[in-house]
Amino acid sequence: MSDGDGELEARLVEQEEFEPSDEFVEQANVSDPDIYEEFEENWPQCWERAADMLDWYDDYDTVLDDSDGPFYEWFQGGTLNASYNCVDRHVEEGNGDRTAINWEGEHGETRTYTYEDLQREVNEFAAALRDLGVEEDDVVTLYMPMVPELPIAMLACARIGAPHSVVFAGFSADALATRMNSADSRFLVTCDGYYRRGDALDHMEKANEGLGGVDHGVDATVVVDRLGEDGFGHDLKGNQHDWDELTDEHEGEEVDPVERDAEDMLFLMYTSGTTGEPKGVKHTTAGYLAYTSWTSHSVLDLKPEDTYWCSADIGWITGHSYIVYGPLALGTTTVMYEGTPDFPERDRLWEMVEEYSVDVFYTAPTAIRAFMKWGSQFPDDHDLSSLRLLGTVGEPINPRAWKWYYQHIGDEECPIVDTWWQTETGGMMVTTLPGVGTMKPGSAGPPLPGIDARIVDTEGEEVEPGRAGYLTVNKPWPGMLRTLYDNDDRFVSEYWQEYSNPDADEWVYFPEDGAKIDEDGYITILGRVDDVLNVSGHRLGTMEIESAIVGVEGVAEAAVVGGDHEVKGEAVYAYVILEDGYEESEEMRERITEGVEDAIGPIARPEQVVFTPELPKTRSGKIMRRLLEEIANEEELGDTTTLRNPEIVKDIQTKVGGN
Ligand code: 6R9
């Protein structure tokens, strides 16, 4: 992968280890290195420390029930409410006038919600949802862009015990329908549109189209009016309601938070896997909230008086855990931004860091690579001295990008936490503790206290330091997914098959990432080992993209692989065989691209569509993806002797190179 052309001081290029400053360590929430040992010696009781960060109605009886692995249960017997923990308790503690959410629209308009404001809005919308017929355990789908009504709706759902299923606004109508169908969701909250690079985007059209694809009845849809006069004139029909009108009707109403069992579902989040069907990852109330609170405290070092900004979209797990639940549970001010980092100029984020005096900033390597490309004059023009800590998530960060972030954003004063985790893990798993550990650019760090992550070979034996292997997690943790919605079998086969020994009741979680470990126990993530791509930090299943392409008229067969990309990390390369009678053409290429956008969304758009008469296949008829990847990356080709049709390779290479 190219390192980008961002300028970096020579002395930093050589440096392999970095220490947090004394000043940082002194103020850090966690700074005692003994914490690793404490957790290990006292496992699983150590997790009480996370549970104690929450307010409970009834205390739990047991920390961990492991009698039915891998269906673990945490904090059994306890009852609580996530909305109460993220909102009401801060107001009751006298902090109602502290800012909960600082929202900024792309055009610069701002909205500030204190915890008291948030409490009022959450209550009113919870009352509205009840009135629409939403009952405890009904799944409410939220197909919304980055507007404040999204976290408000999430917390309103949590208040009444209705799990939410947030669908990223950039996903297509088809993707919305698939997720609503899969979750049997009869309620939708959506938005008329939003702004991107100055243009108003019509979101309602996609929402309506998606609703058309839902195969059961939909009881009600609520629509946020974001665009006002810039709107596209969609009339609300039948059971569609306007957010403002609804909440006006319920003005001042209060809804008692429902007492949820620790193990009751808080939300579903769909994510890509190796098959064409997205997986409905189920997270529960207590374990998830305790875990995101604990990691927000220990890794993000959040304090109630901090202003914290995670630039992810709430439509992904990072936004759930570290824009909404973790920071709000701690009573922090969380920043939300609607638009892109380069509108109106490439310094938009730094302008906002300065304006809001952001203390802690969390973003993705793909963004950092774009900032590097744009050049350091954009951050250099702003006073970023409010920053105390930086973080990254979503994909491996190369040392050069890490150091650029360290130098140009953190002014060599802020520690960086490179946090490895997944939708399924609920929260961070492998990273340094910023107040404790040495940082090594390119390596996420050791597993967090209480997390038993290892690097193993195909037999499950730990590999020597420096050797590539597979990452596994050998003990459960509170934030873990509990199952896949309505599909316990797939839950077991996707995550607990490879390395577990069911006869001995030994369960090992397999996240499907490759990794290596060094002498100090620092883990470097090498990337996915399944057929899932990581495009700009977003997980996309190759099967999902392939089935979208094969759905295009005239396409006979398709294979999708990831090719290296300077900014996106990975990009989608599609190799396509056409049916007889169809010719390779620009029009065909466009139809394929559109097909992918319709089925998934613009994020899955292929970087290159390569037409080929055949795909390289082994004698047993399997597509040799490794070879297609090497071709996409213009790398030297590995062994081709097992191919049935080696002559096709040259052809494809010429096409990729010459395109
Ligand atoms: C939080 C999130 C999960 C996959 C994961 C891995 C990759 C995430 C990483 C990282 C290297 C990091 N990943 N963080 N790779 N270093 N710090 O991104 O969840 O969307 O489910 O993706 O992302 O491959 O398995 P999700």
Describe the overall structure:
This protein has 659 residues and is of the alpha/beta class. It has a domain at 536-658: GMP Synthetase, Chain A, domain 3 (2-Layer Sandwich), CATH 3.30.300.30. The chain has 21 helices and 30 strands. The strands form eight sheets. Strands 12-11-8-6-7-14-15-23 form an eight-stranded mixed β-sheet, sandwiched between helices. A hairpin with a 7-residue loop joins β14 (265-271) and β15 (279-284). α5 packs across α7 (149-160). The longest helix is centred in the N-terminal third of the chain and has 17 residues, at 115-131. It is globular. The mean pLDDT is 95. It binds ligand 6R9. Ligand 6R9 binds at residues 271, 316-318, 393-396, 418-423, 444, 511, 513, 525, 527-528, 534, 537, 539.
CATH class of the domain at 536-658: Alpha Beta
Strand order of the largest sheet: 12-11-8-6-7-14-15-23
State the total count of DSSP E strands.
30
SS summary, helix count: 21
Distance between the termini: 20 Å
CATH superfamily of the domain at 536-658: ANL, C-terminal domain
- The percent range for helix content is 25-40%
CATH topology of the domain at 536-658: GMP Synthetase, Chain A, domain 3
Shape: globular
Question: Mind telling me the C-alpha Rg?
Answer: 24 Å
**Helix/sheet category:** alpha/beta
Largest sheet: 8 strands, mixed
CATH architecture of the domain at 536-658: 2-Layer Sandwich
List of distinct ligands in this structure = ligand 6R9
Report strand %.
Answer: 15-25%
Overall average pLDDT: 95
User: Which ranges are low-confidence, i.e. pLDDT below 50, for 5 or more consecutive residues?
Assistant: none
Family: Belongs to the ATP-dependent AMP-binding enzyme family.
Keywords: ATP-binding, Ligase, Nucleotide-binding
Domain AMP-dependent synthetase/ligase: 93-477
Domain AMP-binding enzyme C-terminal: 544-622
